[in-house]
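[audit] Reproducing an earlier prediction to check determinism. Same input, same settings, fresh worker. If the tokens differ from the archived copy the diff job will pick it up downstream; this log only records the rerun itself.
[audit] input (208 residues):
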Amino acid sequence: MLKVGLTGSIAVGKSTVLAALGDLGCVTFDADIIAHSVMEPGREAYEEIVREFGSNILARDGSIDRSKLGPIVFRDDERRKRLNEIVHPRVIEEQNRLLCEAKAASPDAIAVVDAALMIESGGYKRFDKLIVVFCDREMQIERLMRRNLITRQEAELRIAAQMSSEEKRRYGDYEIDTSGPVEQTRLRVAEVYNELLGFQKSRANSQA
């Protein structure tokens, strides 16, 4: 199985790219969804986060309210680092479990894991190839404001808290710019997918 990492800064269109790769036949995993699952009540990460950040971050149903937790960690580097220390090991553990299941079900699959902090955490090293998604900065700000219903100042703060797209692009084997129309992005995704197929085929031949 070919393991592919998909990353990029916040609100650059990673979900769109992941969905397009899924439509082409890749097995896809969203680390944000996995993070949600490991932070659910009853899970180890949940208990540790509540101890660290307090019960004021909880929603009425007892779940962690990310709209309350977000402003805390995006304004404080140390608090954000502490949250990552709690969540990331559990997310990677769950990713590995899901990848093993995918390989057992389909040994020849191309499995893609989408994770925003893959480079920062060093997790990208576990993958055979890395795709970096990016877009125009002004578009990124507008997407984040619209998606999260936050002010421009808050959007810029959250973007600045992460590694820049320019820095992330230095690590990528492939780049996908989502600044244009969705159709253009999908065409680029198809190009990258075909290159991944070619790499997978050549690797299989060299191992035969």
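[audit] rerun output stored. Observation attached for the diff report: The chain has one domain: 2-203.
[audit] end
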